[in-house]
Amino acid sequence: MCAGYTSGYGGYAVMVCNGFRIFLCHFLLLLTYTVSAAEPGQTLPVVPQPFPAPEFSLKGEGGKQYRLSDFRGQVVLLNFWATWCPPCRREMPSMERAWKILKDKGVVILAINVGEDEDKVFEFTGQYPVSFPLPLDLDASVVRQYRVTGLPTTYIINPKGLITHRTMGSRDWDQADIIKQLLDMRQQKQGVE
Q1: Strand, coil or helix: what is 53?
Q2: What is the C-alpha to C-alpha distance for residues 184 and 181, in angstroms, rounded to an integer?
Q3: How far is CA 80 from CA 11, 13, 113, 124, in A?
Q4: Is pLDDT at 11 greater than 50 in this prediction?
Q5: pLDDT digits (tens, 9 = 90+) for 122-181
Q6: Do 86 and 173 fall into the same domain?
Q7: Which of 139, 133, 88, 145 lies closest to 114, judged by CA?
Q8: What pTM did the predictor assign?
Q9: Residue span of the structural domain in which 15 resides
């Protein structure tokens, strides 16, 4: 419910809507978080207690099936996103650049689109070309399994299938610090410290 009051500014009545102000505060907070999350020197926050990544099986482009268990033994960057999400759109080019660096080094990127069909994702990739897999979570069942509360959200799954890192908001995925962190996780599996 909006409450009206008159300001002295130019004699115009100004309507103030408490709900709108709350929305605006949340929006500015999210914007601040998203901008600060994409600053140099980013890292991937560690979860306090690693836990098993929930298994899923989703179709992607051209009906190709993606199962998390197919990537056991590799580091998996599991990203949840949507085409309507500005921070998601912002991070996609850096994710593609990271994929080009990591794809042959035991690190997999799976960017799960939440709630949109293949046509919508295809339209998006016309503007933001990517070559990594884009599984479709049409009914949002996987996003619920992973208890995602906002987009984008990314989990890092170690080669043993445990979630070790979680981040909310966009990242510059091709940043040297993040690439090194992902590669180090892969090398630890191989016994290299």
Answers
A1: coil
A2: 5
A3: 48, 43, 6, 15
A4: no
A5: 999 999 999 999 999 999 999 999 999 999 999 999 999 999 999 999 999 999 999 999
A6: yes
A7: 139
A8: 0.78
A9: 1-37
- In this structure, the answer to whether residues 16 and 76 fall within a common structural domain is no
- Quick: pLDDT tens for 70-122: 999 999 999 999 999 999 999 999 999 999 999 999 999 999 999 999 999 99
- Give 122's contacts (C-beta < 8 A, 6+ positions apart): 61
Give the Cα-Cα-Cα angle 92, 98, 102 (nearest 5 degrees): 140
**Cross-strand pairs, 75:** 107
Answer yes or no: do 100 and 127 share one domain.
Answer: yes
171 is written with which tokens? 């990242």
Residues 22 and 59 in one domain: no
- Paired with 4 in beta bridges are 15
Identify whether residues 5 and 85 lie together within a single domain. Answer: no
Q: Are residues 72 and 130 in the same domain?
A: yes
Q: Which of 143, 47, 139 is nearest to 88 (CA)?
A: 143
Alpha helix (H) ranges present in 38-171? 86-102, 118-127, 141-145
Residues 98 and 27 in one domain: no
Q: Which tokens is 103 given?
A: 């794809």
Same domain, 31 and 59: no
**Is residue 96 within 8 Å of residue 124, measured between CB atoms?**
no
- CATH code for position 152: 3.40.30.10
